[in-house]
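Q: My labmate handed me this sequence with no annotations at all. I'd like to see what the chain might look like in three dimensions before we decide whether it's worth expressing. Could you predict it?
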Amino acid sequence: MAKTLKKIRRELLQDEIKRSVLKRLGYLEEVKEKGWDSLSSRECGRIGGLIRKEKKSR
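A: Here is what I predict for the chain of 58 residues:
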């Protein structure tokens, strides 16, 4: 089934927010090189909290 335009836009916005949070915290390069497994659960939780905060403010 094809994705609707609304779903695609939502996913793109979510990726944009995720990348900006990772860049702000300095984890973007680490995630690109080693993947999400290289981060601790504490770091992932912090990233998730900041993503939620950013989405709420938009």
